[in-house]
Amino acid sequence: MKKIVATVLAGALAFAIAVEPLQAQQVLVDPKAWAAYKVQFLDPSGRVIDNGNGNISHSEGQGYGLLLAYLSNSPADFEQIWYFTRTELLLRDDGLAVWKWDPSAKPHVTDTNNASDGDMLIAYALALAGTSWNRSDYIEAAARMAQALLSEAVVEAGGRTLLLPGVEGFTPPGRIDGPVVNPSYWIFEAIPVMALLAPSDRWQKLSDDGLALLKSLQFGPRKLPAEWVSLARGPAPAEGFDAEFAYNAVRIPLYLARAGITDKALLSRLQHGMTANGAPATIDLATGGVKTVLADPGYRIVNDVVACVVNGKKLPPTARQFSPALYYPSTLQLLGLALVVKKHPECL
After folding, report:
1. Is 127 exposed, middle or buried (0-12, 13-18, 19+ CB in 10 A)?
2. Catalytic residue (one of 50, 77, 88, 117)
3. Where are the domains of the chain?
4. Which UniProt keyword terms apply here (predicted)?
5. Is the pTM of this model over 0.70?
């Protein structure tokens, strides 16, 4: 235990030294947009509500909420979201968050497994906010979560370093076709920060192997990754899941762009493969058939960001108009706009 604590504190110190605190943080999310987001999705308790999924809350949503509060330079909102997160979700013995909280159930936590992308988002946002706002408690909490992720969810299998979607249920013997991964769980922009918080060369390997894996996942006529991928032998759509490019996978090009990964061939292939009638869509991998066209501006902005990064194309007016309806696409829209404001203002 003493060794773990020392590692966590050393990682926190390394992060604080490596990242210079911002004297005047750039506001990357428009205050009016953030206010509209809060009205629609943020409960006074600090719970981020997924209104497209039975009004549940989850670690992913709390992580996104923390990140958007940071990008909005809203310390009070950040603390509100963090209070709910640490008191209602950080219940596991390993330092990771339970993934699901249901307001209609008693007890509210209905699944105690973690979701590794949610954990990484929470740790990433805590690290950024702690550094910018001089909150050592945030940095230390981030370091503990990063160390827990490294210990529990980052694994080696088949010569690759992988991020398990959750600690339980994705590897043998319980999962015969395991390891099973979700390519959209690699938050590439956050991984270098994890390496500062919990120093290990495994983080760079995780990033490199995740990108290489993503490039290799070209299923069906549209050459798209599956949402859930078995790596027991060669990569294949995992058993028990629909063989599809689905809602989670739509964010992959946005994650790449936000991390500064501007591989034009990869981004263009993903954009072309997932587009139908000018908008992202969920795709049946075997046939290439369109299952659902995702017309919300929050989904469309993923293609708009790719067009900006690859071709310097300006965002259409609809991408810049924020009228939140559903939690997930509204979140993607604000993350997309924040990226363009920071790195590609020529596209505005």
Report:
1. buried
2. 117
3. 2-347
4. Carbohydrate metabolism, Cellulose degradation, Glycosidase, Hydrolase, Plasmid, Polysaccharide degradation, Signal
5. yes
